[in-house]
Amino acid sequence: MNTLLLVAEFLDLAEAADELGVHYQTAYRWVREGRLTAERVGRRWRVPRSALADATAEPPAVRVREIRATRHWPRLQASLQTALIEGDELRARAVVGRLHREGETLRSLVTNLIAPTMAAVGQGWREGQVTIAQEHRATAIVERLLASLDTARPGRPRGRAVVASPSGDQHGLPVAMAAAALREDGWAVDILGRDVPAETLAEHARTTGADLAVLTVTNPEVGDAVDHAVDALRAVSLAVLVGRPGATLDDLVNDARTAGPA
Ligand code: B12
Q: Which domain, by its residues, includes 41?
């Protein structure tokens, strides 16, 4: 016997939210934003089933390009800076999360928004307008934010990279930034974090069969430790890239592709 499945052409908002796998309030917000097509019938919303796919589809590439072209980065930086200095994590997440959902890559978000904002926080700290506690809190928020957006890509990785800062360098945030850019470019990444002794790094890279080591240097006073780490890594036949302030994540991704496995 054939079973005939009748699929309703229209749904109410709760049913639409269920099918979309989102909370009712999210579906309601999407209606208000125009992302989910719905019409008001009396006190209820009527959602055409055909609108569900559009609501979850990625924005078309052309539209993403249009949105990106109109970004006003200085305004976004000011907004993120205020949120970070006030310790308003939800607002910081909202600013960055929206751009990410609109298709902005993590590499772009770090380059155009997060790194310049952290530089401004550092400047404020040096000039005495931002306290050490505010800077620490801002850094911790950005670390959590990056971690929540930085996810490994499915599929075969381009290669395996290990990322760390050398002994004596406590700046872990640029390490996380480098790792995020590499993951986004298809690398499997081990983040060893900050202030990592050369021998630990080299031994880990050797035993895990890493293809590439990335040293992120931010503290200008660790020159000897960098040389030592580079020697230790080359001794285990590893390609090494060293990044310093001003070196961009575009440089990193391009150099990693060149240095990594063919
Ligand atoms: C947060 C912070 C800290 C935190 C770090 C906490 C953490 N978990 O990271 C703490 C409080 C520990 C700290 C300590 C210090 N800090 Co500090 N810190 C900062 C701050 C505000 C942000 C750092 C950051 O995340 N930057 C991220 C981006 C903005 O930096 P970026 O350098 O452009 O990074 C890019 C590259 O590294 C690239 N990249 C990463 N990896 C790779 C790899 C390759 C191969 C390539 C190509 C590129 C690449 O990616 C990044 C993004 O594009 C900066 C301000 C600033 N201008 O950066 C100061 C800053 C870096 N710190 C500074 C100083 C002086 C210090 C201290 C010496 C202060 C002191 N007297 O104790 C100590 C040093 C401690 C130590 N032993 O390391 C100075 C450095 C000045 C200098 N260059 O001469 C800065 C610039 C502040 C300032 N304006 O004076 N700091």
A: 2-58
